Amino acid sequence: MAHKVIFDTDPGVDDAMALLFLHRHPEVDLLGITTVFGNAAIEITTRNALFLKREWNIPAPVAKGANETFDPARPHAGWPTFVHGDDGLGNIGVPDDIGIDPDPRPAHQFIVDTVRANPGEVTIVAVGRMTNLANALKAAPDIAGLVKQVVIMGGAFYCPGNITPAAEANIHGDPEAADFIFTAGWPIVVAGLDVTTKTHMKRHFLDDMAVRGGKDVELLQRVSDFYIKFYAHAVEDGMLVHDSCACVYVVAPELFTLRSGPIRVVCGGIADGQTIQKPDDMQFGASLWDGMAPKQVMVDVQSDKVLDLLSRTIAG
Ligand code: BDR
Ligand code: CA
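# calcium ion complex -> structure
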């Protein structure tokens, strides 16, 4: 039976690859794309999601989400234009008007309605800031008991962050939202930098995918050029496919090693946005993790197999 998926995203170069993977995978039924601010403002990430939907003929609707942090008093974190370009898709020149309307509902309402309509069946894959999830859960706490699972790209658990030494960008962009969703009683699996920084896609690998995959994958190749140049400091002529790791988990969980334990997020101070797990197999004194339901953190990955699955699914 296909995995029913809502993809919550801030496209975003690596988001684009993850979307094409979900769209093309035969065991995924993509029910909707919900947008969130992060790699760019909400008008841009939503326009980009509509653009990718149009270019790749994706039937799933796009619902526009949050442009403001869960705690509106939190100062604006800024846009990572140096990673994803001014247009959020590698400065390829995305047109302003896509000619497709978004779903009339805000993203959090789309999530609530879709989860309630498919009890026990929906996997939410969230690869931007956690704001839409937090807004959905606050508006409708019952969805925690109705989702199948929530798979997240975000956080850095047993390794450094990427936006600060302590924090990963998706969590750092809205730490209060992240702490709210991590401490709720729904099943969460997290692909953080612990595994995504081990998953390097080289330029020649993507070029080869584009040769096999034709114009749809050539778009991915064009979008990725700016991002590959940004990643020169970390990957030799290649990039990190963060968001695709979370999507691959949905269909191939055996490629990841998990560690179980509750998660809290630091909100404020020098480690703002840091994600900290209390592993179930360790003993501590009393702490603010006590009584919280355990979550699953990916601590290792068979990255060659992840890349192979991405390549076969996206490019044939
Ligand atoms: C995450 O931040 C964004 O820039 C990427 O799209 C990914 O979701 C990586 O830290
Ligand atoms: Ca993203």
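# post-check
The pocket of calcium ion (ligand 2) is lined by residues 9-10, 12, 15, 39, 127-128, 243 (CB under 6 Å).
Residues 265 and 275 are 5 Å apart (CA to CA).
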